[in-house]
Write a structure and sequence with these properties.
The protein is of the alpha+beta class. The protein has six helices and four strands. The structure holds flavin mononucleotide. Flavin mononucleotide binds next to strand 3.
């Protein structure tokens, strides 16, 4: 049976090395449109994205994550996924809301043949404070928002093997009872 979405999701792999080719601004905009269609709890739409292309700023963002933050160096675009946590109604599901939007971004990148990787920020440490606090200070994110993760994007500089049916953990699927 045709399964165009699976054809996309199986090709999406984390890409952590990037080539030199510039990602078109128009492509970034299309990817953002996809992320803005992601479902959010109660339809609150609490997820806000900061698109960073300045390489110096990208290096500074990477430095806000003590372990592994430098992996974003070389990415042409880094999308900082922030979620409004100020209101109780929004705070309850902020991780889910941010995660779904991020997953959409990862798939959108693959659709355009770009490499992308989720780089985690929540509960990670920077030099002095948490990575979240340091990134918010660096990028002027107002109080009441948290940074969940980054999505680093660029021309693929490595080509991880697409998933095939044989890779799927079918044993994780249960019918009627666990
Ligand atoms: C919640 C979450 C956090 C992740 N954090 C990182 C990270 O900080 N750095 C990184 O290189 N990859 C990170 N990843 C990517 C995973 O390592 C990757 O998805 C996993 O190894 C499976 O490989 P695949 O993406 O190629 O299918 C994260 C993924 C998720 C969903």
């Amino acid at each position: 049976m045709e399964n165009r979405l699976y054809e996309l999701t199986r090709k999406r792999r984390s890409v952590r090395r990037y080539g030199q080719r510039r990602v078109d601004d128009a492509v970034v905009q299309e990817m953002i449109k996809v992320a803005l269609t992601a479902p959010t709890s109660f339809g609150h739409k609490p997820v806000e994205f900061i698109i960073v292309r300045n390489q110096e700023t990208i290096r500074k963002i990477g430095a806000c994550k003590r372990m592994g933050g430098s992996q974003i160096n070389g990415a042409d675009v880094v999308i900082v996924v922030t979620v409004k946590t100020a209101d109780r109604g929004q705070a309850e599901f902020w991780i889910e809301d941010g995660a779904i939007a991020s997953a959409y971004l990862l798939l959108a990148a693959e659709q355009y043949g770009l490499g992308a990787c989720w780089v985690h920020i929540r509960n990670r440490m920077g030099r002095q404070k948490t990575s979240d606090e340091e990134i918010r200070a660096l990028l002027g994110v107002p109080d009441g928002y948290s940074v969940l993760n980054l999505v680093a994007i660029g021309e693929k500089g490595e080509s991880p093997r697409p998933y095939s049916d044989a890779d799927l953990h079918m044993e994780n699927v249960h019918y009627e009872k666990f």
